[in-house]
Every structure is written in structure tokens, then in C-alpha cells.
Amino acid sequence: MNLEALLQDLGHGVITAFTRAEAMDRISKDGFDAAMLDVTLPDGDTYAIARMLIAAGVPFVFSTGRPIEEEEFGHIGILDKPYGANELTRCMESLAAKVADIRLKPCSVLPAR
């Protein structure tokens, strides 16, 4: 499954980042309505990115195949890997509901490999 193509087929703009550094740079420069954050990034602390998204008021979900280790993120949704198109669609609908009347701009996709 090509996650970027699937999100685009669902009508979302997609901006990707494949490292922690790239994600933090994009969050600080680009405006997002919502984000999907892969827990396993090759270059560091994914939870720092989550804290940055929370501080910016950006709703997001974690995408992971393992438990979230930090208790402070217990209220954040999780899209469990592996997932299919139906699960992804429900996840995106949930995020869209969180941004209410705001039309989704780019939905950030942070590494889902």
C-alpha cells in the first residue's frame, strides 16, 4: 500500500518527512491541519515531534506496530500497523472531525514504511 497515494485518493494534501529532523523542520515552516506520526524514526525521539505538534495545536495520530511508551500521550489516537484502507479512512475522518469546520490543508505523513 502506498500511503501517500492512498491519502491523496482520499482527498488530502500530503507532505512527507522521513526523519525526525526533517519532520521538525516541516512542522516549524509549514502549516498543518492534522498529522500522522510514525513512532519509529531513524534519527531520534519521535515524542519530541509529538510534543511540538501538541504545542502547535495540531491534532495527530500515532502510526505504530508497538505500544506507545510515554504515558503523556495516552490520549492520542493510534493507527495500529499493519492497517488497510478502511482503517486509514476512519482515522482520517476522525482527524477531520477534530479540525471541525477547517478544510484540511496538507495532512502530514511522517514515515510509514
Describe the structure in your own words.
- The protein has a single domain (3-109), classed as Response regulator (Rossmann fold).
- It has a five-stranded parallel β-sheet, sandwiched between helices.
- Helix 3 (46-55) links the parallel strand 2 and strand 3.
- The longest helix has 14 residues, at 85-98.
- The relative contact order is 0.28.
- The N and C termini lie close together (10 Å).
- It has helices at residues 3-9, 20-29, 46-55, 85-98, and strands at 13-16, 34-38, 60-64, 77-80, 106-109.
- By secondary structure, the protein is of the alpha/beta class.
Write the layout of secondary structure elements.
Blueprint: H1 3-9, E1 13-16, H2 20-29, E2 34-38, H3 46-55, E3 60-64, E4 77-80, H4 85-98, E5 106-109
Parallel strand pairs: 1-5, 2-3, 2-5, 3-4
Helix pairs in contact: 2-3
The assigned structural class equals alpha/beta
- Shape field: globular
Q: Say what the CATH topology is.
A: Rossmann fold
The helical percent reads: 25-40%
Whole-number mean pLDDT: 81
Give, in order, the helices and strands.
Answer: HEHEHEEHE
Major sheet strand order: 1-5-2-3-4
